[in-house]
Each structure stands twice: as C-alpha cells, then as structure tokens.
Design brief:
four-stranded mixed beta sheet; globular; alpha+beta; 154 residues; 4 strands
Length: 154
C-alpha cells in the first residue's frame, strides 16, 4: 500500500464496477433502486457530471449492463469533488439503469451541491483510494445493498 504525505488528498472511490479484469469490485446490478425520486436522481446526476477530471486513461469504459451505449460515451476519465472519485460514466448508471449509490456519498453530494471544482488543488490529488468502495463487494444481494442507500422519503 502506498502512503502519501499528510497534505495529499486521496479521494474515496465510488462507482467503479466489477468486470472480468476487476472481479473484486461491486456489481452494479446490486445497486438498483426504483424508489428514488426523479428530482433526487437529477440532482445526483448533475453533481456527478460536474466533477473535476483529474485522471485520464488510454481506453474507454463500458456499460456493465451491456445496454449498447458506445464505449467512448462512457468516458475515459476519473472525476472528483475532492472527497470522492468516480468514473466519468457513472451518471449513465443512475440515468439509464436506476442504480443508486451508498448513503455516505448521497448525503455528501446533497450537502455539497454547489461545490466549486476550480477550488480543488489538483497538485494535491493522488490516485483514488478504493478500500471503502471494495467493502461493498461483499454486499451481493439487493437487500444488503439497499441498507446502505438513502431513501428519497427520508
């Protein structure tokens, strides 16, 4: 494990999904929740799409639901708000597949809707830390995953 100096920001990874090459990540099928309001979904989609691109890959991602969305539209960058980091295409899962994210992220995003990405000091950003996100891999049932989601009516 890499240790970084105290002043380095290592955002928590969220929304990186299981694949053949990354079997230890969560499965997005376990995060589907149809009970979330359209307004709350739209707010989180806007938040995710407003992130600062801070890490770029040489290849594109793909939709884990195999819905036919072109890979280049899924993106090739990591975005951040300075606290969390997510793949550029994460909003697609919320828009098109009713995926919802753990309450810790939702609460953070809802209370920071107007974050200013120009205030993020990119020189202090390190690669994302995926330890927190990988703990959701063990939540292989929808029932377990929903225990970590904030409900629209709360």
């Amino acid at each position: 494990m890499i240790t970084y100096p105290e002043n380095v920001i290592q955002p928590k990874a969220i929304g990186y999904w299981k694949s053949v090459s990354l079997p230890d990540l969560p499965d997005p099928h376990n995060f589907i929740d149809f009970s979330i309001s359209t307004e709350q979904r739209q707010a989180i989609i806007q938040y995710l799409e407003n992130g600062l691109a801070f890490f770029h890959y040489l290849g594109h991602s793909f939709c884990r639901f195999n819905c036919g969305k072109p890979e280049w539209e899924m993106g090739c960058s990591d975005l951040t708000d300075g606290t969390f980091a997510w793949p550029e295409g994460l909003s697609h899962y919320i828009k098109e597949h009713s995926v919802w994210l753990p309450s810790e992220f939702i609460e953070h995003a809802m209370s920071n809707m107007n974050f200013d990405k120009t205030k993020i000091d990119q020189r202090k950003l390190a690669q994302k830390n995926d330890a927190w996100w990988k703990c959701f891999t063990s939540l292989q049932t929808k029932q377990a995953a929903s225990a970590f989601k904030i409900r629209a009516d709360e």
